[in-house]
Specification:
Keywords: NAD, Oxidoreductase. With 330 residues, the chain is of the alpha/beta class. The protein has twelve helices and twelve strands. The protein has two domains: 120 residues, Rossmann fold (3-Layer(aba) Sandwich); 192 residues, NAD(P)-binding Rossmann-like Domain (Rossmann fold, 3-Layer(aba) Sandwich). Strand 3, helix 2 and strand 4 form a beta-alpha-beta unit. The two termini are 23 Å apart.
Length: 330
């Protein structure tokens, strides 16, 4: 079984190489992404393993089929970058890792929240230069505030528990509410409009679909409290980035902590510190003192990497053995 790994980093190579000692697959790690220009390099490979910013559209899938690829293995939970209809028509199966470490992502969201509300980045930069002035660093207690969760899957539930641990009241929005969880956790489901109106902290944990794209937009942010903050560790396109800049400029929201960005594929996972950034929206977001951006690292823990490698290689083994694919995306 020959596997072409795309968009791999050092941590991918370490975790998958160690896990592959058991499976003994022929793995070819590539630093570049899968897209229309690189799809033809998969000739002779049975499986491609891709990440969140690889392009797996209809054109790419046609090339994969022509090259003899039989399986697309996502080493992530999201699959919005894959044309599932084209894959089905080509007879190529698609599998994913639905839950590699929900704690990693939720905990990173909490870290963004605390860093944002207590001005940790600014304080760190000051004290590194022996500046111990605390003017302008006034934060606020999270205890007693309202935390809103959009998307109450595993990660959303864990984030809700973390916020509840701070003493926050938890409200949630999900088109498919989990009433049992809500009853057990003390959370209350509200309408989409109400979660924007009531939340002091709004954390996004829903998948990216046609219905959720730009769920945070000009209109919904105008509903929010002027000191409310948004945390996004889900998908970048859940937020209309241009509308976000407008909301920050005009004080419609209090700030945002984000680990994902709508147009991140060009920039994230790469060093642009010595280059000119041509994305005016991202460049503008980086200038706001009440914005914290991390480069899609919420998943990056040793626990998550181990689980990603194990589940991905298990998915491939089940496919090879003709077993039921429990993590298949159709």
């Amino acid at each position: 079984m020959k596997i072409a790994f795309f968009d791999t980093r050092s941590y991918d190579k370490v975790s998958f190489t160690k896990m592959n000692e058991e499976y003994k697959y022929d793995i070819d790690f590539r630093d570049y992404k899968l897209n229309e220009n690189t799809a033809l390099t998969t000739k002779g490979y049975d499986v491609v393993c891709v990440f969140v910013n690889d392009v797996v559209n209809a054109e790419v899938i046609k090339s994969l089929k022509d090259c003899g690829v039989k399986l697309i293995a996502l080493r992530c939970a999201g699959y919005n970058n894959v044309d599932l209809k084209a894959a089905a028509e080509a007879g190529i199966k698609v599998v994913r890792v639905p839950a590699y470490s929900p704690y990693a992502v939720a905990e990173h969201g909490a870290a963004l929240l605390m860093s944002l509300t207590r001005h940790i980045p600014q304080a760190y930069l000051r004290t590194k230069t022996a500046n111990f002035n605390i003017e302008g660093l006034t934060g606020r207690d999270l205890h007693g505030l309202t935390g809103g969760i959009i998307g109450t899957g595993k990660i959303g539930q864990i984030m809700a528990n973390i916020l509840k641990g701070f003493g926050m009241k938890i409200i949630a929005y999900d088109p498919f509410p989990n009433e049992k969880w809500a009853q057990e956790s003390g959370a209350t489901y509200v309408s989409k409009d109400e979660i924007f109106r009531q939340s002091d902290v709004l954390s996004l944990h829903c998948p990216l679909t046609e219905e959720t794209k730009h769920i945070v937009n000009h209109d919904t942010m105008k509903m929010m409290k002027h000191d409310a903050v948004i945390i996004n560790t889900g998908r970048g396109a859940l937020i209309d980035s241009k509308a976000l800049v407008h909301a920050l400029k005009h004080g419609h929201i209090g700030g945002i902590g984000m680990d994902v960005y709508e147009e991140e594929s060009k920039y994230f996972f790469s060093d642009w510190s010595t280059d000119i950034m041509t994305d005016d929206v991202l460049a503008r977001l980086l200038t706001f003192p009440n914005v914290i951006i991390t480069g899609h690292q919420a998943f990056l823990t040793t626990n998550a990497l181990k689980n990603l490698a194990e589940t991905t290689l298990n998915n491939i083994r089940d496919f090879t053995a003709g077993k039921e694919l429990v993590n298949e995306v159709k």
